[in-house]
Specification:
Blueprint lengths: L2 H8 L4 E9 L3 E7 L14 E16 L2 E14 L5 E3 L14 H10 L5 H8 L3 H15 L10 E8 L5 E7 L5 E6 L7 H9 L6 E4 L3 H10 L4 E4 L1 H37 L3 H6 L9 H4 L10 H11 L13 H8 L3 H5 L2 H5 L2 H13 L1 H19 L3 H17 L3 H12 L1 H10 L4 H17 L5 H10 L10
Parallel strand pairs: 2-4, 6-9, 9-10
Antiparallel strand pairs: 1-2, 3-4, 4-5, 6-7, 7-8
Helix pairs in contact: 7-11, 7-15, 7-17, 10-15, 14-15, 15-16, 16-17
Length: 474
């Protein structure tokens, strides 16, 4: 072992090797600074007098699996030019109080994309907090200043992050880089980003987002010239919520009818003749059993179903007459995910196809809602330009309002209220798919670490996610 060993393996320059103090479980090497290269820390003058102060132990790169430590002889330097009396500096450390070398820091930073903190800690006998602090400091330097100069298309979305509730994530839709992370999902969460945009020279052309009123208000105020784009994912997601509301409404309606029938049967047991004929005296029937909701539809719903089928859906069956409440209740159980499936997936699943056939034969409300959901999905795949999309969406809104179903009417109003942003999808051809996909990577990040306690470190890890591979190669 020699002085050249310090340079080639540990990147230590200007220090001389003296001896190895220990070869046991750890290697301890005694080194000192070359007296010819000792300089004043203030004026860098070589006209100094060195006085030995103490030995300081520094962690270096491991040799194999064995930890390496350097016992460095520390001197006080008295400068005869400026008169300063200070301790000599150690240039191979990244900070005055660090107890490990720059080479070890770089080694850990290079290992982190491939190994967890715990794995590095066990493999090289390093403290867990030391590894984390090294990575955190490296990420802080890397993402201290994120350039906004060439920013044109951005995506905004919120994600739930456990104890900190919500983060607002802003992503460059061209490069996929994370531009900003705000706390919360309100307009106030983007205030800091607004100030950064004003200071920068970037010109945002479009903003992709969901239909959050807070984000819409922020975009109109801060980026009045930018186009707001509502991705088709959020439109279909909202439509799925509406069809689920219709399902719950129909289920509750059928359950009330079943309870009313059970109440009526209990009362008819008081009279054998009434039981034989199935008649209950009017005075013994409770009010809730007298008034029963009917499983019937508006007069024009048959026409709407046929029209929606012709437009883009597929006929899933003809309407049966007068299903009993118990039959309806049994059919409506456990069909939530069936109604949320696309028709292309149902066509390849015979069991799902049969269940949907029975459902739509018994319940026209759900049949019509499902057909209109599929018709709305088909518009996004068949409309080639903004003019065709506008025409087809106008037809869809008309059919939804004529259906007489409250949830469909509300969906039509939502589309009309966000008309320009929905049509901008065909105009610009951008989506917030990158943002939605990135949210899945954030969930993966949280799952891998079993949660985070350090908020600043968690944010830095999110900034670094676009360059992180979430797939392990064997």
């Amino acid at each position: 072992m020699s002085t050249s060993f310090l340079f080639h393996t540990q990147s230590i320059v200007g220090f001389l090797y003296e001896k190895v103090k220990s070869w046991g479980k750890e290697i301890v090497i005694l080194i000192r600074q070359n007296s010819k290269k000792q300089k004043c820390v203030n004026c860098e003058s070589s006209n100094v007098t060195a006085v030995f102060l103490k030995n300081r132990r520094i962690r270096g790169l491991p040799i194999g699996r064995k930890p390496v430590f350097f016992d460095v002889k520390i001197h006080r330097l008295k400068c005869h030019d400026c008169g300063l009396y200070r301790q000599e500096a150690l240039p191979f450390l990244s900070g005055k109080k660090r107890h490990y070398t720059r080479a070890l820091e770089r080694f850990i930073v290079e290992l982190r994309p491939h190994l967890s903190i715990l794995s590095i800690s066990k493999l090289y006998h390093l403290d867990w907090d030391t590894i984390k602090s090294i990575e955190k400091r490296n990420l802080q330097k890397r993402y201290a200043k994120i350039p906004l100069k060439d920013l044109e298309y951005i995506g905004i979305d919120e994600i739930h992050v456990g104890q900190w509730k919500y983060f607002t994530i802003v992503i460059d839709l061209v490069s996929g880089a994370v531009i900003y992370i705000g706390e919360g999902k309100s307009k106030a969460s983007l205030q800091s980003f607004s100030r950064r945009l004003k200071r920068s020279s970037c010109k945002i052309k479009a903003v992709a987002m969901d239909m959050s009123d807070a984000y819409i208000s922020w975009a109109k105020e801060v980026l009045p010239e930018a186009e707001i784009v509502f991705d088709h994912f959020h439109v279909i997601k909202l439509m799925n919520e509406k069809i689920d509301q219709v399902r719950r409404s129909e289920y509750n309606k059928a359950r009330k009818l079943v309870k009313a029938e059970e109440t009526q049967k209990q009362l008819t047991g008081k009279s054998n003749e009434a039981d034989r004929l199935g008649i209950v005296p009017e005075s013994e029937v409770p009010e809730e059993a007298k008034i029963q909701p009917k499983l019937e539809l508006k007069p024009n719903q048959d026409q709407l179903i046929n029209h929606s089928i012709a437009e883009g859906g597929k006929n899933v069956g003809d309407q049966k007459s007068s299903p009993t409440p118990q039959e309806m209740l049994e059919v409506l159980k456990g069909i939530r995910w069936l109604l949320l499936k696309g028709k292309e997936k149902i066509e390849s699943d015979e069991e799902a196809k049969a269940r949907l056939q029975i459902l739509t034969e018994l319940n026209k409300n759900l049949a019509l809602t499902y057909q209109l959901k599929e018709l709305l999905r088909s518009i996004y795949t068949t409309a080639k330009n903004v003019y065709e999309a506008e025409k087809e969406l106008e037809k869809w809104c008309t059919m939804a309002r004529q259906s007489g179903i409250q949830q469909l009417d509300a969906m039509a109003n939502t589309i009309k209220n966000h008309w320009d942003g929905i049509l901008a999808y065909w105009k610009l051809g951008i989506t917030s798919a990158k943002v939605e996909g990135f949210n899945n990577k954030i969930r993966w990040l949280i799952k891998q670490a079993y949660g985070y306690r350090d908020k600043a470190y968690f944010k830095l890890k999110i900034f670094d996610l676009p360059s992180t591979s979430i797939e392990k190669s064997l």
